[in-house]
Design a protein that fits this description.
This protein has one domain (11-94): HPr-like (Histidine-containing Protein, Chain: A, 2-Layer Sandwich). Helix content is 28%, strand content 21%. It has helices at 26-36, 59-64, 82-94, and strands at residues 11-18, 42-46, 54-55, 71-78. A four-stranded antiparallel sheet has the order 1-4-2-3. A hairpin with a 7-residue loop joins strand 2 and strand 3 (54-55). The longest helix has 13 residues, at 82-94.
């Protein structure tokens, strides 16, 4: 199997400090989960490097974490777009959740 083979299960891990005032409340959590859902991979999020882990694509699970400001978010992903997903999520958090368009909602 070649390293360029898209069927290879890629893995990635990373962390980022949450500096958003108010922590990971509803609005930033929604932006994070919407972004996570764009990628073809499983993404887990936790507040410790050893977990417990939550599904980053589930708004209910992300909100249940009740993450306060200045907490380090640990991310782990597996699948074809694992590295891309983590890079995008880390950029979103570092940009104070300004890095994703909210006009893409199809609530009409």
């Amino acid at each position: 199997m070649m390293a360029d083979d898209p069927s290879v299960d890629a893995r990635a891990a990373g962390s980022v400090v949450l500096s958003h005032t108010g922590g990971l409340h509803a609005r930033p959590a929604i932006k994070l989960t919407k972004l996570a859902r764009r990628f073809d991979c499983d993404i887990a999020i936790g507040v410790a490097a050893v977990g417990p882990w939550k599904d980053a694509k589930s708004i209910a699970q992300v909100l249940s974490m009740k993450v306060p400001v200045d907490t380090t978010l640990h991310l782990s992903a597996s699948g074809p777009q694992a590295r891309l997903a983590l890079e995008a999520i880390i950029r979103l958090v570092e940009s104070d959740f300004q890095g994703i368009e909210t006009s893409e909602q199809s609530d009409a």
